[in-house]
Amino acid sequence: MATKTPTIENRKWVPKSSIFDQKTLISWSAMLIVAFLVLVPLIVMIAATFRPAGVFPLESGPWTVTNYTEFAEGQRGVFTVFKNTFIYAGGTMALAVPMAFGMGFLTERTDVPMRSVLYTLMFVPFVTPVFATALGWVLLAGPRAGAVNEYIRLIFGLETRNGPLNIYTMEGMIFVTALGIVPSMWLLLVSVLRNMDPTLEEAASTAGVNRWGVLRKVTIPLMLPGILAVVIYFTIAIIESFEIPLALGITAGVQVLSTKIWLIITAVDEGRFSYGAAAVYGLVGVVIGVIGISLYLWMIRRSSRYTVITGKGYRPRKIKLGRWKYLALSLVGLYIFIKVLMPFSMILYASFLRYYTPPLPEYFGNIPWTLDNYKNLWDWRFFGQTVWNTAIVTVAAASVTMFLVTIVSWAAVRLKSPVAQVTNVLTFMPLAIPGVIMTLAFFLLFIGTPLYGTLALIVMAFTARYLAYTTRLMYSAQLQVHKELEEASLVSGIGAASTLIFINLRLLLPAFMNGWLWIVTHAAKDFTTPLLLATSGTVLVANVIYSRFEGGRFTESAAVMVVLVVMLISVVWVGRKWIGGEVKQ
Amino acid sequence: MLTVENLEMEYSSEQGPVRAVRGVSFTVAKGDFYTLLGPSGCGKTSTLRCIAGLETPTSGKITIGDDVVYDSVAKSITPTHKRAVGMVFQSYAIWPHMSVAENVSFPLMRGRNKVARTQVKEMVNKALETVQLAHLSDRPAPALSGGQQQRVALARAIVYEPDLLLLDEPLSNLDAKLRDEMRQEIKEMVARLGITTLYVTHDQVEALAMSDQIAVMYEGIVVQEGPPQEVYLRPTSAFTANFVGKTNVITGEVSTKDQTITTPHSLFKVPLPKWAKDTESAVVAFRPEAVSLSLAKGKVPDNTIRSKVYTTSFVGEVLEYVLEAGDNRFRVKGDPFTPYSIGQEVDIHLPADRILVMPSDDKTMADLAAGQAAAEEALQK
């Protein structure tokens, strides 16, 4: 029989976690790694802004504010760069938002036919490298030999050898970029459209407001915060985008923030590099990013205030298009034709040519067909070295990142300790740091150290860049795992680390693989990090594509792109199939 | 076997710190089936989780067997995976990526309970036979019914023969029929294995039917502890009286000289508790089944309430009456073979040893109401 009288004194004691405790060890090491990846490069970048030309950021030597005064005086065309960047971002948004919203509205809120086919087609652009689209457009709308230009001149009998279209302009950049971001933007807008409570619209209809009145006065105002959030998010994405300004803007003489940084780093003024000047641009980019992301998060909160969660499985009322529906379908079809089919058929075509020849009737007899562009890939030790390097870097980056974010999100969901929360917040930061600036920060941190010029450095930069997105992904997956599944393992006598591996990680394997594939495909398609960090010993596929492109050997560049796209599609196909099987089980 | 001494636990919520457990002490003897019974939020699950090491107490001492697993004075704590316990969770927590046999063998393959590979198969089979699931050992976990998952969870908790088995509302997710079946089965199983068991439930029927000892918990403390009969027949608090079974109450005036309580309609001769003061009021409480009924006749005897039948309802084994005496109504159970009809005058006879005397104050009333609410809430689950 038990006794109620306290047998011991009632002294409070909350055990301090010792550093040898597995959980503490796990969360602290995760925080240190994340802090190293996110904070240290930024700090070094800030340090670099105070170093004169010719001095490495971490070297001993003089300090200076010259970089800031030069920037403020508008040297190196500072004002033009920022003007260009804002025109580029603003113009792209002006073109892309109506297209994406229109398509989102058609696919979500109308009875447009063949919806499932459209959905599948909208996902095709996700595996195609941005740079390949840009090259495709060079082949289509290049001022001289662009196929579209040639045909326009042929049909209208124009005498000129140039134009009328020129992709090497600000307008060309905006056009290609806008086409490119529509699918991702559409994907986010679809969820905004889906979160709308249809009864709010129905209430307006029953009150006697007509269909377009409802759209104008109810639907759009309610979705406005959600749409604005999407717009802000993509504006930042465009400010940081690098591939299209690189492929088109350099020739066009239009420099934006990202290409300016790259030009300063790769150019050597009078034998002296001037990383400090690039770092100042980077710092401005970070400030823009932080403001943008804060605005974005604020908008997200506002839009979720508007979100009225009604019962499960409701379907918003679909607007009947009637005889207009085939027009609507062909508009979406036209987009996919222009976005995907046109540039890629050009690249595929070009990859089989000895030298680029526009597909015009006058040349049809003697088109210089060849397989050499593919055969030559063996000579360049392409598969032996470049593809191998790319495979190592992407697989390593994906694995390291996913392990890290699994632990970070696990700690944030389960441990709820301050350390875990700080780590979780830190992983948000790369969202506000444009990729080109993140890479610049890594460049500045490691230039002059033995790590510079290694694949490991590229892996680290990719990890830092992809941390933010994959942490969100794993965090929401972690919330789905019932905590008792892990507690059952602990009670069975299995330690925290083993439980994390054999229960948590194993259960999250589908989400893990999803994020893993996302990183592999994004890293393989990325040009920013390879072009800033790769050296002669660490050439990646992106470097090969760019060097052929820059050297005017478009057909060789096209062949490498075709190989890259084929490899990416196979990886995604195999990965998806595996995830599908796993989820079904 | 298990000793919990002055256990306190706090956790922080958005509304500030919550004192979930406020000084709980009890001892479970080796081989006993011990139940923590209480409504949700009473601290019973927190107590269990502190014993498993899944929550960290703020003070107190917990001893499992010879191991002190938590002691706030000596400042020692043993992590969960080093405690000799097995546990069945409310959600069963069957690992969905494993088969039945893999679920049960997992504790034997890794960690503290590791055994030689050759022994694993034998032990898993034995555990699965105990829960009558040997024929399903290769089935993937998601393909199991709720009752089968429950058995897997039991097999997994006992396979490494822990000193102490912790059961956290294991039956609450089963449908009523299966629940009755499993209740019997779990009771027999732990008795056969001789394993010390700590059981947490909000269901008084489960607690009464399965336990050797029950601790009724309310607002973070143990309000009564004892064997099922004692808790049911001799509740020591108003909360227990109305939470574990139903209770009728009537208020009267104490006379210490005569050792009586006088209510408007009757006189009760009962042994008075020490706190009862002369001429002050006290509450007479009794169970619906504690009474015997007879047709009203002549003068009202002591320990009897003369009443009128207000409603009757026949539920088979008993006749349930609501009887009325002045402003008071009483729920009592009667013999179905001698029914009384609505409007008839009936005498309710209350033997003195079946009466519980409680102070007539706000706390008693509040505790009675809380017990009733908790019992109703438990029924709805």
Which short descriptors sum up this protein?
heterodimer; A: 585 residues; mainly alpha; MetI-like fold; 2 domains; B: 381 residues; alpha+beta; Rossmann fold; OB fold (Dihydrolipoamide Acetyltransferase, E2P); six-stranded mixed sheet; five-stranded antiparallel sheet; 9 helices
Structure explained in plain terms:
The complex is a heterodimer of chains A (585) and B (381). Chain A has 585 residues and is an all-alpha fold. Chain A is 71% helix and 0% strand. Chain A has 24 helices and no strands. Chain A has helices at 22-48, 66-73, 78-109, 115-123, 130-141, 147-156, 170-194, 198-206, 211-240, 243-252, 257-266, 275-306, 325-351, 372-379, 382-415, 418-428, 435-446, 455-480, 483-491, 496-507, 509-525, 528-533, 541-550, 554-584. In chain A, helix 5 (130-141) packs across helix 13 (325-351). The model of chain A is unreliable at 1-8 and 308-313 (pLDDT under 50). With 381 residues, chain B is an alpha+beta fold. Chain B folds into two domains: 2-233, P-loop containing nucleotide triphosphate hydrolases (Rossmann fold, 3-Layer(aba) Sandwich); 243-379, Nucleic acid-binding proteins (OB fold (Dihydrolipoamide Acetyltransferase, E2P), Beta Barrel). Helix content of chain B is 27%, strand content 34%. Chain B has nine helices and 21 strands. In chain B, strands 7-8-9-3-10-11 form a six-stranded mixed beta sheet, with helices on both faces. The mean pLDDT of chain B is 90. Chains A and B meet through helix 19 and helix 20 of A and strand 1, strand 2, strand 4, strand 7 and helix 4 of B.
